[in-house]
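request received
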Amino acid sequence: MTKDRGSMVHSPARRRFLGTSAAVAGGLVLPAGLPMQALAAEQHPPIGTWPAGVQGNSVFIGIAVPRTGTYAVQGEDELKGWQLAIEHLNSGHPLMKQISPRTKKGVLGKEVKFGVADSAAKPNDAVQAEQRFISENKAILMTGSTSSAVAVALNKLAEREKVLYVTGISGSNDTTGKDCVRYGFRQCFYGQTAAAAIGPVLVKAYGKNKKAAYLTPDYTYGHTVTKSVDDYLKTAGWTMVTNQVAPLGAPDYSSYLLNVANSGADMLVNVNWGHDAVLSIQQAKQFGILEKMKLVVPYQIPFLAREVGGNLLSGVYAATDFWWTLEDKFPLAKQFVAEFTKKYGYRPEWGANNAYMSFALWADAVENAGTFYPPDVIKSFEAGRKLQSTVGEVYFRKEDHQLVRPVVIVRGKTAKEMKNKEDYWEVLDVVAGAPLMQKPDAFGCKLGSYT
Amino acid sequence: MLTWSNFVAQFFNGLALGALLALISSGLTIIYGTLGVLNLAHGAMFMLGGYAGYAAYTATGSFIVAVIAGTLFLLVFGIVIERGIIRYFYNRPHEDQLLVTFGLAICLVEVVRLVFSSESRSVPAPPVFSGITSLGFMLYPTYRLALMGIVTVALIALFLVLYRTRLGLIVRAGIEDPVMTDSLGINVYRVFMVVFGIGAMAAGFAGIINAPVVSLTPDVGESILVQTFVVVVIGGVGSFPGAVVGGLIAGEIISLTSMVNPAYAYVMLFAAMTLVLVVRPRGLMGAKGRE
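response:
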């Protein structure tokens, strides 16, 4: 069953007379009487939604994010991050300028507008929504994904339509691995870097030669994260005694957990995400599994600790992209957390941070390119500029469009250790990103052409 | 993991899963069997029962009050919906019924999301049923054991109401020959209203007693709806005993397939449904359907 909340267009983009929609059709007729773009248009034939999407004094971003289904809670958090970033871009906020130094107001002086559609974490819904944004609003940027299945689908759409795409949350190795595209970029950490960062911590905490049971969601994210974690832990003599693969949004985990209970494992590695993670952890508790096994969450889920409740995550190790107490370590994180909390009344989770950062990095790429012409923006991303982020210095790797960025290792706090009601995790380490990454071609990434 | 102990554990768990599926499906099958309405809002009603109970629980802290509130709320809700919407669709084509109930489901889910947000909500099991029981061959959550008993009692009660009371007799007469029943001075339309109320109530009751097992989200009804339809199709559309048998079969298929390869649990469920439809198009216990 699919549900479609339709798309909600904020401050609808004014449709300007283009003389022709050749830009979308890929024809070669040039719109007349458009002084701003005339020069660029003479240099380049139209591509994707360029120059149609940059004719007016605003540009449009299409956001397809889950607002229903298993990943709805995380989707709402992401959406707030994107909305804050757009607000900061349009006002030329000081925080935005520290990440994207050339930003003044808007992007290249154009106001940023956006539309939101519910993807329900389903690839088809996301692709349909984005296609609507491309054809109706001439979107010059797409974003969205909380599920890597969506990210991979939107990667393909971006490549086909020649419209840039920055991922939302996406933990699969494939997103910048075998399914990487020239037109897609990822800001956040992923299976390989999560495993390489948390692996040593787990071995140090629990020792070698452990028996691990895995809970894996049955799609690209689950399979690649489980493989990466298992590959690393094998080197310390850990064995996978069972791998319980469940569909996204499974209504009950009892039969999987019985297999886990009977597997003789002493570790439970839960790769499930969103509500699936909440449900599977709560039910693991009901079946007495958490008393017998140590829980590990290799790819942390926003709001997990609060939703699971009962302090079930105290002492649990997780790898994550961002946690708000990093404000003590990074000045930009402090500003981001303050701005976000002021606007939304709670401290941001990593989905919101990833969303904000991905727009800021896109703005920096566009400002440095000096044009919205997609191939130039891509080359600007690929230039490997060192950028300031909320977790220190970062840069994009040109071979696979993956941001080289640290991974944060956290451990769940006990109720006594919590200084406030959002103080769920203790930051143990911020692990430098570059050494965690595979070689650029190790996961089969072949970027497509620029045009 | 094909060990004897795991097989026993999974088989037992299959019964527990199946009992719950049977209860949820019974409401769907009663409504279809008597009114001929395919109710796609059944999953949403299951969800609504959970949330009504959750609201009552947060207000009172009592699980019993939560169960009563969830159940009664859905009884009233079912009656209101029948009077307000469903009764206008009895004589319309099936696709209209599907659309209106599907639309209703979307509205219900989004209203609940507006009020409670998408975040998971938990109703803890009552203290007497909290913790874990050792069955000798396995450890099993005490509340899930209790649930098997609760569901069995509820199904028997439903059966008795439908097949051993005057109300049940009138209901079945109303299905068989509405015109004759009507001319005997029985208000058939009131009977239909009560039936829809009972069906919704069964869904609501299932929603709240299931709440301690799963954490509630506005989307819990969606995945259960698909399973419920599979159960009804396997058992025979409109057959109450069929819902019970279909539920138990579906529970066992999910559990026992998970034992061998969890990724195929739901594939096998649909494969079984297809097999039943090929061999017995009416389902295992389906009577000749209403034309």
